[in-house]
Structures are given as C-alpha cells and as structure tokens.
C-alpha cells in the first residue's frame, strides 16, 4: 500500500465529493472551502495523477470515465472511514482521563471514586497522578485537578474549593494541647523545610511572637501526615489531605479553626474536552462530592 504515500487523503476526499456533487459550489459547501480554493485542489489532484478527472462545462463538472469508475468506490471507502471516526468519537465520549496531584488522588479522590463509577458505569475512567502540571491540549488527559492561586478562571477552569490549613497530630499529643501556644512545645513536621500555613493559622488564632520548634522534614504532605500519625510532632495539614484520617481517628486536630492560605482547587479541561458529556458528568459529581465533604468537615472559616 505504499502507493498511498503518493496521494493525500484530502486529495481523494476532493475527488469523491466533486464526483458526487458535480459542481464546485456544492462540493465546496460540504468541504467548508471556497469554490476557488476547491478548484485549485482539483488542479493539484489532476497534476499529481497526470490525468484529467473532470470535464468542465457551463453546467458543472462531468466526471471522466476513469473518475466515474472509482467514484463509487471512493464514496464507499469514505463512508467506512466516517463510521470508524464515529466509533472512535463514541469511545472517546465514554472515556475520561484525569490528571491530578498525587496527594489529592491518594488521600481524598481514591476513597470516593467508586461513587462515580457506580453512578456512571458507562464511563471508562483513567486517573493519572502527576505532580507536574500537564498541558491538557497536548496530552491524553481530558481534565486536570490543580492547586494554585489562579488557574485561569473563565478559560476552561472551575474553582472547586479554597485550600484551608489546620494543625494535626497524634491523639496522644492532642491530649496535651489546651491552647494554641501549647503547640509550640512540640516539633513541627515540615514539608521540604517549609513552615507552610503556620503564620496564617497562628495569626488567625491571635498568637504572636512565636518560635516554632523544628521537627522532621519530609518531601511531601502525605509523608508528613504519616509522621503526624506516628507521634513525630505537629503538622499543618489541609482538609483534602487529613480529614479522612481525622474521621478514622488516625490523627487529631486540637482546634476547629481552619485558615485560608490563598490557594484553591481548580477543575480544568482541555479545549477539545469542554463539550464532552463525560467531562460534564465528572465535574458535577466532583462538585457534589466536595460539597458533601465540606458539610462533614463542618469547621470554622476565617
């Protein structure tokens, strides 16, 4: 089939549509081009084949015997190709690939995803955990769940919820904490040496002139939470990370107050996926699931 390399699919499509319509205007309307542009395409097709395909007349285009002999086969072939494209589009419509931060996927999403698949058994869902931001328009992913101050609201992005922080620790340590100042007696578990969220939370609690006690450092928040479970100190966690562990009693939160840190969760779609019904259903489900979580968390806002 190497002879297919000598003629493009668009050239064959031009021949098929012209043979079926027998006029430049009708064929141009179907292909979405001007009659002049289509006339140039036809000239290039005939030059590539080294033969005349249509006889021009005042009434339109008359296919030559050679053209007429292959026109019906071209029509049948393109009808088959159209069916293949429709099948692929239907498969894509029922398939959804989501890229999401690894911690959000492992600590919150994975525990709830069965709710979505039970409600939408016709959608094949693929989760791609990734800490780097994926270019949705140049990847296999349809949707991204991202965290940041602004992910382009109004341009395929929907704000899901604000990220709020609060201190968590083992139940044994929590039993020793009676006031916010008591937290300062325990090591602070840090993510990459950073005291993320501490200034905002302590300020909201009215605690000033603080000296935090350095504790162990881990490369991501999930490991920091595990460290808090094992009694290594206090960690400034956030809701989607820690609230399931709180509910199961693996960690405790000595105070109800949760502080915003200027970051939010965003639902972002690729341009080609914005009208995908699977995307719309997943977005609606995700918003409902987060609303349910917020009601269960039921904590104070600042």
Describe what you observe in this structure:
- The protein is built from 11 helices and 10 strands.
- The chain is of the alpha/beta class.
- The protein has 2 domains: 2-93, Arc Repressor Mutant, subunit A (Orthogonal Bundle), CATH 1.10.10.10; 94-302, D-Maltodextrin-Binding Protein, domain 2, CATH 3.40.190.290.
- The strands form 2 sheets. Strands 4-3-5-10-6-9-7-8 form an 8-stranded mixed β-sheet, sandwiched between helices. A two-stranded antiparallel ribbon has the order 1-2.
- The longest helix is centred in the first third of the chain and has 29 residues, at 65-93.
- It is rod-shaped, with a radius of gyration of 30 Å.
- The N and C termini lie far apart (68 Å).
- The mean pLDDT is 87.
């Amino acid at each position: 089939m190497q002879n297919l390399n000598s003629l493009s699919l668009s050239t064959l499509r031009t021949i098929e549509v012209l043979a079926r319509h027998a006029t430049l205007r009708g064929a141009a309307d179907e292909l979405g081009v001007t009659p002049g542009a289509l006339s140039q395409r036809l000239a290039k097709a005939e030059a590539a084949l080294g033969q005349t395909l249509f006889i021009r007349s005042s009434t339109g285009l008359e296919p030559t015997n050679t053209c007429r002999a292959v026109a019906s086969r071209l029509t049948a072939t393109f009808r088959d190709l159209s069916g293949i494209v429709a099948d692929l589009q239907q498969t894509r419509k029922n398939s959804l690939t989501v890229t999401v931060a690894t911690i959000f996927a492992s600590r919150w999403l994975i525990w709830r995803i069965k709710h979505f698949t039970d409600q939408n058994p016709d959608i094949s869902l693929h989760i791609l955990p990734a800490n780097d931001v994926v270019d949705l328009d140049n990847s296999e992913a349809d949707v991204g769940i991202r965290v940041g101050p602004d992910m382009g609201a109004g341009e395929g992005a929907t704000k899901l919820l604000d990220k709020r922080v609060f201190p968590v620790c083992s139940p044994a340590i929590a039993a020793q904490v009676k006031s916010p100042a008591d937290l300062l007696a325990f090591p602070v578990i840090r993510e990459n040496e950073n005291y993320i969220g501490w200034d905002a939370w302590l300020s909201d609690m009215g605690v000033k002139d603080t000296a935090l006690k350095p504790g162990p450092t881990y490369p991501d928040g999930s490991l920091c939470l595990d460290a808090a479970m094992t009694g290594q100190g206090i960690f400034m966690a956030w809701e989607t990370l820690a609230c399931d562990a709180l509910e199961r009693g693996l960690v405790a939160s000595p105070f109800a107050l949760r502080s915003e840190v200027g970051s939010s969760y965003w639902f972002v779609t690729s341009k080609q996926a914005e009208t995908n019904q699977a995307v719309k259903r997943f977005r609606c489900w995700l918003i409902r699931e987060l609303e349910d979580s917020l009601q269960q968390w039921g904590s104070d806002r600042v």
